[in-house]
Design goal:
The complex is a heterodimer of chains A (238) and B (110).
Chain A (H helix, E strand, L loop, with lengths): L2 H11 L2 H21 L8 H15 L4 H21 L1 H6 L1 H6 L1 H25 L4 H7 L6 H11 L3 H25 L5 H23 L1 H28 L1
Chain B lengths: L1 H21 L5 H16 L4 H12 L6 H5 L5 H6 L1 H27 L1
Helix pairs in contact in B: 1-2
Classes of the chains: A mainly alpha (238), B mainly alpha (110).
């Protein structure tokens, strides 16, 4: 690198602007690819953006904390987006009240099965205690799962990665799973994706249909709340 | 849009403060969501400007997961050592959760 370029790089890498811009640009690029691929779930935009940024950080030898200086502004909005969930939750509240039994039952079953199956399988295959505690809340939306993992004694940053991976897996695997079970109702499909795969699953569901998205969002909000209130309580009893 | 954003931040802030004060074992934004929900219920609905902003924000929800996802960098070592239990647990648990949730919901609908 010539001296002048190196100076510019030193300046940019010390300011949050570079990595904030890189995060948004990577996502825009990934979303463009996703659309080009006809919204095929395999071309998940979060996965593509993360892979591109990881490669970029690796090539430029940039440590994660430096990246996060810029990316934190995006990350911060997860908390605000969690508050914003109250609006679709309220909009769907009448549906929830009408279908209290199927939605409540499915939520409780899905939430418990998500944690128990992940921790059980991880434990049987020899995962460490920290990994198991970080796995438990992986189906809840990131800000909630990270907060819960911290309270359980897991690693919030590892939970964040597991949550994102779960979301991508849910978005990719939902169609095949639900088709195999011959579930056609968009309300049921959306709700299942929302419980299992939080915001990334919900984003995917909204791209399929408004109804599927609404039920996924409802499931995500409810599962977030259930995880936040139930898991610390369960651990105290355990 | 600015008003809606401010309102969301106020609820988030009140949620965080309540958690700090009461020691509730729940993340602050969840309490903020609950309070906003209760306010909407008391008011009988969300105004259009708030709905528009929230819809716009939630439409780009997946962007907000990118910085946390890049955090995979910090855990390459652990993921390398425990890749088998972690990947099997995530894939199997996700498929099982989707299946169980959908089947329970369908069974209870009848």
């Amino acid at each position: 690198m010539s001296g002048r370029l190196a100076d510019i790089w030193v300046y940019l890498s010390a300011s949050p602007l570079l990595w904030l811009t890189a995060t948004l640009a990577a996502y825009q690029g990934a979303f463009w690819l996703y659309r080009k691929a006809n919204m095929n779930p395999l071309a998940n935009p979060v996965a593509i953006a993360v892979a591109a940024l990881v490669a970029l950080l690796w090539f430029t030898d940039t440590p994660y904390p430096v990246y996060f200086e810029g990316a934190q502004f995006v990350h911060f909005l997860l908390g605000t987006a969690t508050v914003a969930l109250a609006v679709p939750l309220y909009a769907n509240f009448a549906t929830l009240k009408r279908n209290l039994l199927p939605l409540g039952g499915a939520l409780l079953a899905g939430s418990v099965v998500a944690a128990v199956s992940a921790v059980g399988i991880g434990w049987a295959l020899g995962a460490s205690r920290e990994t198991l505690l970080s796995l438990a809340p992986k189906s809840a939306t990131a800000p909630i799962a990270m907060g819960v993992a911290e309270k359980l004694g897991g690693l919030p940053s590892l939970t964040a990665v597991l949550v994102v991976t779960t979301g991508i897996l849910g978005a990719v695997l939902a169609r095949g799973t639900l088709n195999a079970l011959r579930i056609e109702d968009h309300a049921v499909r959306g709700f299942a994706v929302g419980v299992a795969a939080h915001g990334i699953g919900t984003a995917r569901a909204f791209q399929v249909s408004e109804k599927m998205g609404a039920f996924a969002g409802l499931a995500m909000g409810l599962n977030g709340m259930l995880t936040a209130f139930l898991f610390p309580l369960l651990l105290r009893l355990w | 849009m600015l008003g809606a954003f401010t309102l969301l931040l106020v609820f988030q802030l009140v949620g965080e403060v309540l958690v700090l004060v009461t020691g509730l074992p729940v993340p602050g934004p969840v309490v903020g969501m609950l309070l906003l929900f209760l306010s909407l219920a008391a008011r009988g609905g969300a105004p259009q400007w708030l709905r528009d902003t929230c819809q716009g924000m939630l439409a780009h929800l997946s962007l907000l997961f990118v910085p946390a996802g890049v955090g995979v960098l910090l855990h390459f070592q652990r993921l390398g050592a425990e890749w088998l239990p972690i990947s099997v647990a995530l894939v199997a648990s996700t498929v099982i959760t989707i299946g169980v949730t959908a089947l329970v919901m369908r069974a209870l609908q009848k």
